[in-house]
Specification:
12-stranded mixed sheet
């Protein structure tokens, strides 16, 4: 039976960061000018494939069925399809996904699909090439990401999630172009409110464009109809285009927190357990992983049962000002 935390939330989802580095320097995640020093682990500092598989097997014994590989940029991890093939065989894992910026996807999409990856999420914050380059810290080319999406389609990934983080005064102009581009496709575009993950992204509430505003903007051009959640704990509020041209989603961590239904754990590339995206401190697991799957399973059960995180619901009541884990270190 899946353990429940102090607020009665079960453990169902696991996000594993396979690498903490990235080939982009997006300001809301890993800004080049304010990334804390010493956050790069190097190969020896990261969990190896045996350690990752042991951890995933232990989590699966506690009820985790959804597994997402993240980073940093996970496609920078050498031999990633080999890891995917191993994790695809773990009993209990029925949904294996990966989040990527897409720049390296064209060369790896088919290998990932053949290894057993079920789903892909691609981050894409602009369709204007110059703005896209700016938003990636001068390191990304829009064409590479679009090629990656096309390669994923050709490899057999039927429906991708396309994530866009919207910041006021930065890329609001891209909302309608993105919506128009992905209408009449099987892909699901999701607009995400700019979140105060970590401490180096200079977050301020004035930069947040709330989901309601984005939804109203799209609805004025292409009428939308709300959809029921596909499963308990779904973070995006989904809407269908009234003309049947697909769907769009909105992730509202700031304006409409969903902590009450959060059943995600996160494992960092160096083997720390984080039970909240906004956590300031992790629980080191590497030595416990080395002790074996049984020992790790018992430890994880205790850790989850002690969990009481609900940062997004408490944000407006005066959260602490201490440093929080950076997004690129544990994924979004």
């Amino acid at each position: 039976m899946a353990p429940r935390d102090q607020l009665g939330r079960p453990l169902h989802d696991l996000r594993v960061s396979v690498i903490e580095t990235c080939n982009f320097r997006c300001p809301y995640c890993m800004p080049a000018d304010s990334t804390p020093p010493g956050d790069t682990l190097g190969r020896a500092g990261r969990l190896d494939f045996d350690e990752i598989e042991t951890a995933v097997r232990a989590f699966a014994r506690l009820g985790v069925s959804k597994l997402r590989l993240t980073g940093g940029e996970p496609l920078l991890r050498k031999d990633l399809p080999v890891l995917v093939a191993r994790l695809a065989k773990v009993p209990g894992i029925t949904d294996l996904a990966l989040t990527t910026n897409g720049a390296l996807l064209a060369g790896q999409a088919r290998a990932l699909r053949e290894a057993g990856l079920h789903r892909l999420t691609v981050s894409l914050d602009a369709l204007d090439a110059a703005l896209f380059r700016q938003l990636t810290g001068g390191r990304g080319e829009l064409a590479d990401v679009l090629y990656g999406i096309a390669a994923a389609e050709a490899a057999g990934f039927g429906s991708l999630k396309i994530n866009c983080v919207v910041q006021r005064g930065i890329n609001e102009s891209q909302v309608l172009p993105l919506a128009g581009h992905f209408r009449h496709t099987p892909h699901v575009l999701r607009f995400i409110e700019f979140m105060d993950v970590g401490t180096c992204n200079r977050w301020q509430e004035a930069s947040v464009v709330c989901s309601r505003e984005l939804r109203d903007q799209i609805n004025a051009t292409w009428p939308l109809q709300p959809l029921q959640a596909a499963y308990r704990g779904e973070v995006a509020r989904r809407h269908a285009y009234a003309d049947g041209a697909g769907e769009v989603g909105f992730v509202s961590s700031v304006s409409a927190p969903f902590c009450g239904d959060c059943h995600r754990a996160r494992l960092s590339a160096d083997g720390q357990l984080f039970t909240c995206l906004f956590a300031g401190q992790g629980r080191p697991l590497r030595e416990i992983i080395a002790a074996g799957e049984d020992t790790l399973t018992a430890h994880l059960r205790d850790a989850w049962q002690a969990r009481a995180d609900r940062y997004s619901e408490q944000r407006t009541s005066g959260p602490g000002s201490g440093r929080r884990i950076e997004m690129y270190f544990i994924g979004g």
